[in-house]
Amino acid sequence: MKTFLLKNRKIVIPVLIALLCVILFAATVLRYLSLASMLRSQQAAEAFKGESESLTAQVSAFFPMGGGISFESVYSFRNTLDGKYVEASIEKPEVGSLYKDGYSAKGSISVTGNKATASCTVYGVGGDYFYFHPLWLRDGSYISESDLAHDCVILDEELAWRLFGGFDLEGMDVRIDDRPFRIVGVVRREDDFATKSAYSDGAVMYMHYDTLNEMQESKITTYELVGADPIDGFLKNIVAEGFSDASVVENSARFSPLREFDVLSRYFTRTMVTEPVVYPYWENAARNVESRLALLLIPAAVLPIYPIVLAIYWAVRGIKAGINALKTGIPDALDKISERRYERKLRKKAKNG
Questions:
Q1: Which of 75, 80, 82, 64 is CA-nearest to residue 103?
Q2: What is the tens place of the pLDDT at every residue in 244-257?
Q3: Which residues of the chain have pLDDT under 70?
Q4: In angstroms, rounded to a whole number, what is the distance separating the alpha carbons of residues 226 and 238?
Q5: Number of domains into which the chain is organized
Q6: Is 253 helix (H, G, I), strand (E, B) or coil?
Q7: How far apart are CA 94 and CA 97, in angstroms?
């Protein structure tokens, strides 16, 4: 075996290098696909689309520090969006809706359970917030704007453990400013590396935005939308026009290779902050993944070069060898045919002689 490898090293070594490149390329692609599908907060467009063939888009608006909007602004925007769909002759489906939206405001609050009192981060949420952030439920259910009662909360595992020492808490109460709130669910935060590196909120509680706004005046700092997108950029443009002071991001296919090439082209300048916006942890996690995927494009583009060049080289050599074989083989074959004919004539002549 060793002798064979030494004798054929001019063929074996290039083949091994090409094989290694192919293996590394496959590993890079698998890693890319794994990262691109990791964050559930970026997958609302696919979830909304389901099995239909309609075009959908997910768009987020992040408002500057000290700014934000009220629920009245959200309501006004919804009316504007409905009008834009009518203008575009997009009809509401018989089942479902043309879009879903969610919004949130962030604050801090002190909450009391049956074992302790703790300070925590509180998110006042509205619309279908948990459609965009489907955190894993340890117990109970989510809350949404359509709930009849808005005196309910969701705790994350950390806060649940601090206040009660357990997680099966649905139906129990916490107290905020001596006011009872019913626990409807306990959630587990995202555990992927990108979110862990971006997350800094500590223990978290979720409650209805209007309730939080009553307790401590809070502006909506994040608005998220997913819906029918009849032409590319339709929803993004409407959001950008409706919330002109916000940083607007289209989440749809943000991890596609085409979008990541754009990220790579401005890899160093994209870290420069030119607007006073503090992004929520899920957007920072998405930007973390974007940066990693952009870097993966480099080996994904470089690794196939050697196998492709080697395959082309051998294909060219094979074609040349085939042409040369034809050039020498055809005349030789014709000569042999002529010789056989001549020999047959001689034998026939001798026989008739």
A1: 75
A2: 999 999 998 899 99
A3: 1-10, 271-275, 325-353
A4: 12
A5: 2
A6: coil
A7: 8
Tokens found for residue 316: 């060219």
* Cα separation, 96 vs 47, whole angstroms: 13
Domain membership flag for residue 286:
yes
Is the domain of 286 the same as that of 319? no
Q: Are residues 166 and 274 in the same domain?
A: yes
Q: Are residues 270 and 216 in the same domain?
A: yes
**Structure confidence by residue, pLDDT tens digits, 58-102:** 999 999 988 899 999 999 999 999 999 999 988 888 778 899 999
- Alpha carbon distance 166, 317 (integer Å): 71
What pLDDT sits at residue 20? 94
Global confidence as pTM? 0.85
What are the tokens at 76? Answer: 């006004």
Bridging pattern class, strands 204-208 and 247-250: unpaired
**Are the C-beta atoms of residues 204 and 159 closer than 8 Å to each other?**
yes
- Residue 129's nearest CA partner among 220, 215, 241, 249 is 220
Helix axes 305-352, 9-36, angle to 10 degrees: 140
Residues 52-90 as b or e (16 or more Cβ within 10 Å = b): eeeebbbbbbbbeeeebbebebbeebeeebeebbeeeeb
User: Do 205 and 255 fall into the same domain?
Assistant: yes
Domain boundary among 244, 269, 293: 293
Query: Is 58 within 8 Å of 282 (Cβ atoms)?
Result: no
Q: Which two tokens stand for residue 272?
A: 């420069």
- From 242, 269, 293, the end of a domain falls on 293
Closest CA to 224 of 261, 196, 185, 250: 250
Question: What does the DSSP assignment read for 217-228?
Answer: ---B-EEEEEEE
Residue 329 tokens, joined: 């083989």
Tell me the DSSP string of 19-74. HHHHHHHHHHHHHHHHHHTT-GGG-HHHHHHTT----EEEEEEEPPTT--B-HHHH
Q: Residue 309 sits in which domain range?
A: 2-28+304-352
109 with 201, same domain: the answer is yes
* Contact criterion met (CB below 8 Å) for 71 and 210: yes
Pairing of strands 117-127, 99-112: antiparallel
CA dist 109 and 119 (Å) reads 6
Residue found under tokens 């259910």: 141
